[in-house]
Amino acid sequence: MITITRKNLLTEYPKIQQSILPKELKREEFDFVIEAFDDDDENIVEFIDTFIEKLNEVLEKPQSKAAPKQATPKTSKPKTPKAKPAKAPKPPKLPKPIKNQKSKIENSVTEFPAEIPFIKSYCGWHGKVKTKTQVYSFIKKLQKAITEKRIRKTSKHAKDIEYIQNRLIAFYNDMRSGTKTYEIPAAKLAELKEVCNMRWANHVVYIKQYINILNETKTGTKAKAQSLLKKIENAEFSADARTAIADVTKSLKDYLNGKTDAPVINEFALQGLRGLAGFEGLGNLPTANAPISAADFKNASFNLMGFTGKWHQLIGDPSPPFNTMIWGTGGSGKSTLALEFARYLAGTLNKRVLYVANEEGTGATLHDKMTRTNAFHPNIIIVNSLPSRLVEYDFIFCDSANSMQLDLPKFDALKKQFPHLSWVLMFQTTKDGNFLGTKDWQHAVDVEVFCIDGKARALKSRFGGSEEVGIF
């Protein structure tokens, strides 16, 4: 049998016997594929290619097994549509659609809400000539998705779907025969295209907020949980993100409805969330404090930062989170080194950095240093004091820990409250040339960097860095 391709799909599909096709490949689905041919969107093209791939898989199986069961092969004339075909083994049944579940084909190519492919395809109709059959097929496909609850009345885009359905029905009823050009009002077309181009919510941010709520010991937890749940319910997520966020949603609802005294989540689910949020250095260990056998530890994987160049020479290649202290006399270059490091994290590694310029403030001096180091990056946020909300960030720079009156007990409390954060702490020096603070700080951090005369060297690094590097 001929292989189905995009070029011959329209001519070859009608020749295929519907009885051998699973539900996902029957005429009704094919009619929707015809509409997709009018849309240049890459997601729709991928849908078509998947449809064709599944179609060819089904067509290849019956042909080889059907021949032995045929009676006397007809040689006088080719097989006609009226001839009874030999019985072929039934193709494997694909799972039937159920509530809240897309068909296998749609799941394989769609990562956004079920309404979006319909809206995308509808936008592609603008200014194009349509037949009455095409309009009817689109309406039928849309109503099928609504009936199967793949598109719901509670959907954020329910009004858009209702608008499309009503417009198509009116257009169909107005068509007498033949073809007609379909037009969408300019304002509505722009509005629908904006829906299709919408950026889906970053579920990692919501997961980090949830984990911070789990670590919350102060009053006001319920208000934070309510706020987070509202954000989640109003957000748009991809299919994978909706799966990942489901446990968070249930935990928050149980807590807010009084089923639990605090937000509670299964330990395995929590570990999965921590992995998605990048909180753990060990990729496949149960939890940070859980016991682990040496055999399991042997197979542990680590999420390394991937430092290169001078940062690899100075620090090594750490696994987050990790903590660094930088100190040196005035003019030694410690703030410049910190800004260079912040720029590297934000630009090269795409990390979100909060720079607390508590000592110098956001004035001309800091501006000059950022100009010299080219540290004006959108991933770097500058503040004068440490805010209470830190969930959006990966790294916190404290310039300086002394001016912020950040002692070890306060720092330990912050690490416990925000376990995903990495800290870079700058320290002032005393008259005798040591850093201003107790020696316990050297044990509390993973990396200790000393700056002098425009050069930096790691006095301590748990990640292998030891080389001296230039700052200016």
Provide a quick synopsis of the model.
The protein has 472 residues and is of the alpha/beta class. It contains 18 helices and ten strands. It has helices spanning 9-12, 27-36, 42-66, 104-109, 115-124, 132-147, 158-174, 186-196, 203-214, 221-234, 239-256, 267-277, 294-298, 309-314, 334-347, 364-373, 408-417, 440-444; strands spanning 128-131, 179-182, 323-328, 353-357, 380-383, 395-399, 422-427, 447-452, 455-461, 469-470.
Estimate what percentage of residues fall within beta strands.
5-15%
DSSP strand tally: 10
**pLDDT averaged over residues:** 77
Which architecture of the largest domain would the CATH scheme give at its second level?
A: 3-Layer(aba) Sandwich
> Could you name the CATH topology of the largest domain?
Rossmann fold
The number of distinct structural domains comes to 3
Which CATH class of the largest domain applies here?
A: Alpha Beta
Tell me the strand order in the biggest sheet. Answer: 5-4-6-7-3-8-9-10
Write the layout of secondary structure elements.
Elements: H1 9-12, H2 27-36, H3 42-66, H4 104-109, H5 115-124, E1 128-131, H6 132-147, H7 158-174, E2 179-182, H8 186-196, H9 203-214, H10 221-234, H11 239-256, H12 267-277, H13 294-298, H14 309-314, E3 323-328, H15 334-347, E4 353-357, H16 364-373, E5 380-383, E6 395-399, H17 408-417, E7 422-427, H18 440-444, E8 447-452, E9 455-461, E10 469-470
Parallel strand pairs: 3-7, 3-8, 4-5, 4-6, 6-7
Antiparallel strand pairs: 1-2, 8-9, 9-10
Helix pairs in contact: 2-6, 5-7, 5-8, 6-7, 9-10, 9-11, 9-12, 10-11
